[in-house]
Specification:
Elements: H1 6-16, E1 21-24, H2 32-40, E2 50-54, H3 59-67, E3 72-75, H4 80-134, H5 139-171, H6 183-186
Parallel strand pairs: 1-2, 2-3
Helix pairs in contact: 1-2, 4-5
């Protein structure tokens, strides 16, 4: 997508959701550095790589481009091979960022699920202990509550053991030994 000015680029940003932005430093109304700064100030667009296209050669000007949030720059006249290489590099980095965001979301969902699953047996343990402490239960009723507490404690321990096994598998500290199994006999 092409925008002839900085303001039009900002206005069109929502409509095409770019994976990469090439910005010319010299543009009408807002220059490329201002547009870059405005784009990078919005959390929605911070991860989108920006390559500044510039005729500027002064190191301070190039440093200003990077200081505004640009991820890379390319000098005019633009060399097609160099442009493609830089675009591919930035898109690879963007893809890695997107993959990381998916993994972080999955991890967050898993943590929330684990916390929920750990709370249920813990609530049973606390409630059962509180009932034993404050009520006049017969020895049989007390034994029933103790059994409930033990069962909830075992469930909690099983969940924690499963989490530890998963952590060992993910870190590569646990090696699986594959063996052939007769599924009919197992069933």
């Amino acid at each position: 997508y092409y925008a002839p000015s900085g303001q039009q680029a900002l206005n069109r940003l929502e409509s095409f959701q770019p994976d990469l932005i090439l910005l010319d430093v010299m543009m009408p109304d807002l220059d490329g550095m201002e547009v870059c700064q405005l784009i990078k100030s919005d959390p929605q667009w911070q991860a989108v790589p920006i390559i500044m296209v510039t005729a500027l050669t002064d190191k301070e000007d190039l440093a200003r481009c990077l200081a505004t949030g640009a991820d890379d720059f390319i000098s005019k006249p633009v060399n097609g091979v160099e442009l493609r290489a830089r675009v591919h590099s930035m898109l690879r980095i963007k893809q890695q960022y997107d993959d990381m965001q998916v993994l972080l979301k999955l991890r967050e969902d898993m943590v929330n699920m684990i916390v929920h699953d750990l709370r249920n047996p813990l609530a049973s343990i606390i409630l059962g202990a509180e009932i034993i402490r404050v009520s006049d239960l017969s020895p049989e009723q007390q034994q029933g509550k103790v059994d409930q507490i033990l069962l909830a404690g075992q469930q909690l321990q099983s969940l924690i053991d499963s989490l530890l096994i998963m952590a060992k598998l993910e870190s590569g500290k646990m090696v699986l030994n594959y063996t052939e199994v007769d599924l009919c006999a197992l069933c």
